[in-house]
Write a structure and sequence with these properties.
Elements lengths: L2 H28 L22 H6 L7 H32 L5 H10 L5 H15 L6 H8 L4 H12 L4 H8 L4 H12 L1 H16 L3 H6 L8 H7 L9 H21 L1 H10 L5
């Protein structure tokens, strides 16, 4: 590739990158615009800077500030992430390293759940949780995570386990390790990139959860940030869009921080899953 072609390619990629990142830049800029100017201009520089949109937006609605919404979010998200990683690791370990009756059938049934539309099980799942008395709690998120219901994560970890030589298991057995010790002391450290990938995916999906949270949680005091942000638009008075944009920027920050913190392991986990062997 010639020097001119490299320059043209760099300019093209830069233009595409700016086009993709412009909405995010506009979101940040809109948080500093006067309310009347938010939707009247696509420019980034406000005519008059508003510096208190973050402070006033953080107060939330009524008695519930974004301190409450963020606390609820992490109370809901963090246990789900931990339980998902642990349960998916245990199930994947069983499929990857053990032989048991009807193993292929169970594996096929597990994979088939990936093709099951969520709308099909939405009403039965709601009725089930209602009969258990779990509505308006975070148990509808905790218990499925504990039981390893996400076949995508299990399959991802199975592929990673299969790429680890069984010689390591045999060497651990000779050193006196049992099945659980092999998983904790040998396989889990080697699978750290895949485990981080699972945790990262689950964190982002649960953090951005809106529909299921809206169904199962009916108390404003237990709303996560996704519902708290939406509730700002349900007020009877005028909507202060600059405050909405400001809180949208704030709610994005945990996802951005977590992603870039785990980026190294995430990329390694995705690129090596299913390739080793």
């Amino acid at each position: 590739m010639s020097r001119v072609q490299k320059i043209l390619l760099f300019m093209l990629l830069s233009a595409v990158g700016i086009a993709f990142i412009y909405p995010l830049l506009w979101l940040v800029a809109a948080s500093f615009k006067p309310n009347a100017e938010v939707f009247t201009s696509i420019g980034l520089i406000p005519t008059d800077f508003v510096w208190d949109s973050y402070v006033k937006g953080w107060k939330g609605i009524g008695k519930n500030s974004y301190v409450v919404f963020f606390r609820n979010t992490f109370v809901m998200v963090l246990p789900v992430v931990v339980l998902t990683v642990l349960s998916s690791m245990l199930i994947a370990y069983g499929f990857a390293r053990f032989q048991f009756p009807l193993k292929k059938l169970f594996f096929a049934l597990m994979i088939s759940t990936l093709m099951l539309p969520d709308a099909v099980i939405m009403i039965p799942r709601y009725l089930l949780f209602k009969n258990f008395g779990w509505l308006n709690t975070y148990l509808p998120f905790y218990i499925p995570a504990l039981l390893g219901v996400n076949a995508f994560f299990i399959f991802l970890l199975i592929q990673f386990f299969r790429g680890i030589p069984r010689d390591l298991d045999e060497a651990a057995v000779m050193d006196g390790c049992g099945s659980f010790s092999i998983l904790i002391k040998v396989l889990a450290p080697l699978c750290l990139p895949a485990l981080v990938s699972v945790g990262l995916f689950q964190f982002l999906w649960t953090y951005n959860e809106f529909f299921n949270a809206l169904i199962y949680i009916n108390s404003v005091a237990k709303y996560p940030v996704s519902l708290g942000l939406r509730m700002t638009l349900d007020t009877d008075g005028a909507v202060y869009w600059n405050r909405v944009m400001a809180m949208s920027v704030v709610t994005l920050l945990p996802c951005v921080v977590v992603f870039f913190t785990a980026q190294k392991y995430f990329i390694e986990g995705i690129t090596t899953t299913g390739i080793k062997g």
